[in-house]
Fold this sequence. Notes:
By secondary structure, the chain is of the alpha/beta class. The protein folds into 2 domains: 22-247, 3-Layer(aba) Sandwich (Rossmann fold); 280-441, Rossmann fold (3-Layer(aba) Sandwich), CATH 3.40.50. Helix content is 50%, strand content 12%.
Amino acid sequence: MRLGYSWLVLGLLLLLQQDLTQAANILGIFPYRHISPYLVMQPLVRTLAKRGHNVTLITPEGMPNDIEGVRHIRVNKLNRRIREMIETEQVLDFMINKWTETTLTAKVFFNASHDILTDPGVQRMLHDENERFDLIMMEPANLDALYGLVEYYNATLMGLSSVRTNWNTEELAGNPAPSIYEPISPIGYSLDSSLLSRIRNWIHITEEKLVDQLIIRPAQLRIFQQFFGYSAQKLQELRARFSVILINNHYSFGKVRANVPNIIEVAGLHLSEPREPCDKELQKFMDEAEHGVIYFSMGVDILVKFLPLEVQQPLLKSFSKLKQRVVWKSELINMPNKSENVYIIDKAPQRSILSHPNLKLFITNGGLLSVMEAVHSGVPMLGLPMFFDQFGNLRWGELAGMAEVLDINFLNEDTLTTTIQKIIENPKYAQRAQEMSQLFKDRPMSPLDTAVWWTEYALRNRNASRIRLNVEEIPLIQYYRLDSILIPSVRFGLVALSVLFLLYSLFLKNRVGHR
């Protein structure tokens, strides 16, 4: 008995020692002044800290909120840059055309990398000889200069993308895809699959790649060399050092992709956070909705007061005609001309609203996380996209049969009312939404468990070459198997030329004979 007890104690001590030795130092870099990346990142970081890992985050001042057990390095310059852009109205240039957008984007990336590496807190970290990092986690965007930290600390590089896959992420993952698939900018991109659209998209994405090569990457290289002194060749090597890349995507969201093993889909990661409950007044308003509830929200970034009157008026008039009750997320609590069936709320507990049994429809601008929440709850959507990835997110919902999409620039009362009634009264939309919800939820592991497992896999296995395709090692002709068709094509060409030459010779001979 004593022997058995001793072995049990020894086993527990060994397990405890094993857990302690597995604790790693992790550096996360998330510089954006936008809530979505942090909603995706927070559950993973919080769980890693609870599992004993030492996590340090480099983020803007005030975003996200402090996470227990995590060291935060706040970069105040990142906040200042955004304020400067808003004050000078540069953000208005963002969606004029792809070239002005690209120029501004390159400037944003350059400033973000420079502001992080010049920040006093980051500089103290770099000059502290006791600092060690085993893994660096960051958005696989265009912050190439920050890859110098990977070489500086001899760390593993891991990606955590808050958006769906695009060609840049594919390139960093070593997973080349056809160049008509998923651009970064939606400007000029066609959503249909006709031959003309494919050609147009190929041109569009090729332009993006040229801008990356000629404008964005050279600017990042200057910062990379200024702060780390490494060569351009080293930067190229570091771009191929991404091991695991966690993607906020799921195959049920449209296009199925042929991913290499290091691209891990974790869509719904933010859904592991507890839902914010509805207050008593809102709960009663929805519970007593005899004909159901419609929820309308344009996300956290679009204020209703900035919507043109030609958009606000059709919404107000249409909602007044409906027998359903409407929960409208708006900062205008005392909205004029509001009908009795409309409930205005400034900060809406969106996930609780979407999961309410009386909810019939979600009217949304189509932000990726909002679309995921609608799919998770099995709620049909009416899309009013305005910019960025919203068009593609809602186009997918439309193709999946759980959404309709209207052009907000040509919104009118009759079309809006008719479309709302069509979605609510036709059971196929609700049925399809429930089917998509089941597909989205049916996984061997939760998104959070998947993300944690693969993060610790990256820590255990530093050699990423086994799970990524290093395109540099495979010639383009060999990768696309062009060599297998080259010889038959040459043979066929020679035979065809010979036949044409023979026919031409016979034609000339026959012509001379007739003379």
